[in-house]
TrEMBL record:
Record flagged with keyword Membrane: yes
Organism field: Pycnococcus provasolii
UniProt keyword list: Membrane, Transmembrane, Transmembrane helix
Entry's Gene Ontology molecular function annotations: oxidoreductase activity
Record-annotated NADP-dependent oxidoreductase domain positions: 89-352
Transmembrane stretches, start-end: 29-54
Name of the featured protein: NADP-dependent oxidoreductase domain-containing protein
Pfam families, per the entry: Aldo_ket_red (PF00248)
InterPro entries membership: AKR (IPR020471), NAD(P)_OxRdtase_dom_sf (IPR036812), NADP_OxRdtase_dom (IPR023210)
Amino acid sequence: MMLRQKHHRPKSALYLGNHNASRSSPARIAVACVRFIATGLACSALIGLCAVAHRHHVTSASKTKWLVDRRTTVLKPNMPWLIYGTAWKQAETYSLVRRALQPGKFQGIDTANQRKHYREDAVGRAVQSLPATKTAVYLQSKYTPMNGHARGTEPYDETASAEERVKASFWSTMAHLGLAEEEQGNDASNWRGRPLDAYLIHGLTEWKVPLSDEDWRIYRAMEDLYQSGYVLRIGLSNVLPQHVLELCEKAVVKPHVVQNRCYATTRFDEEMRNMLASDVCKHDDGTAPTYQAFSLLTANSRILKHETMQPIAARRGETPAATLIAFARQLGMVTLTGSRDEAHWNADLRAVQRIDDGDLLSDDDVQAILTAATDERV
Ligand SMILES: NC(=O)c1ccc[n+]([C@@H]2O[C@H](COP(=O)([O-])OP(=O)(O)OC[C@H]3O[C@@H](n4cnc5c(N)ncnc54)[C@H](OP(=O)(O)O)[C@@H]3O)[C@@H](O)[C@H]2O)c1
């Protein structure tokens, strides 16, 4: 918090003491002393209050904060509604990310420390090459367990413990993204002070309910990173509602983000979204975890061509792809897109902005899309 300095003379006892000392009577000195002590007490109380307020601010800033979006009554996460995905771009990563972060384009990036599909180092170089966005852009990355790496490309010693692997991968991510000093050993001593916005477990080591011991150890290592203040949100990807429920019930830090492939046929992962919105998954401050959708367009080509979708999109003057992204936004989902086409970026960003501006799909249209999503005929 910054206190603005007023330009008039402060009426503090200290000021009175200095200014009036030479012409003070003993009575005036006594009054000044009383004022001095009283002001001192008031200052201590103020400092105490500021410290509490600051601590509260830092604590709540460390958690996913949702703001009630009055226009849509949909809860709004303090992250961009449309995040630029950087998978499968390889040598083009640097130039695409630079372009994607130009003013008026994307304000958030999703990546992973998984060399097989991502070039996290190139993402970091691109972000750092744009001084204006370097501090403002929302940065999210992932810890990929051993089963998600091409052998020999893991950013950690595969014989290390689960906790050590998470730590090594995390600090390597931080160095890639310019949030820690590079090439000086991947540990907290190199931290530059800016936390990562979100850190997710890319996938489970074992597909089972309840979660395996190994997956719990990985999650606890994520909790440690969060509790140390190195990351503002933790979460998971490619999981079932049952996995999330188990974490919400038993973890010290409930997940802040779930990133899943979003199939229309499951009414857009409705069970998961309901789980995240339920009381059991809410944080102490009443905020709910954010649902992030990937493959929203690529996994749902049928709904994009559905007879219901075309007229809705036409009425809005959009393509069905843009309308589907608007629909997701209206339902409270953050969408990831890795499009390479600037015209598509603009269309998708505009579609989301229109919802932000209150230009909503009607309830009938939302219901029609949900019904079409599970239409067996297509
Ligand atoms: N956690 C995980 O396991 C996981 C898995 C997969 C992906 N992800 C993340 O999610 C990101 C996005 O991946 P994705 O699978 O959703 O798909 P994607 O690779 O981003 O593909 C999006 C597709 O939609 C097209 N598109 C976008 N806007 C369009 C529009 N307005 N009109 C027509 N076509 C449009 C794009 O084509 P153009 O290029 O021609 O625009 C592209 O073919 C990834 O980069 C990655 O960061 C995470």
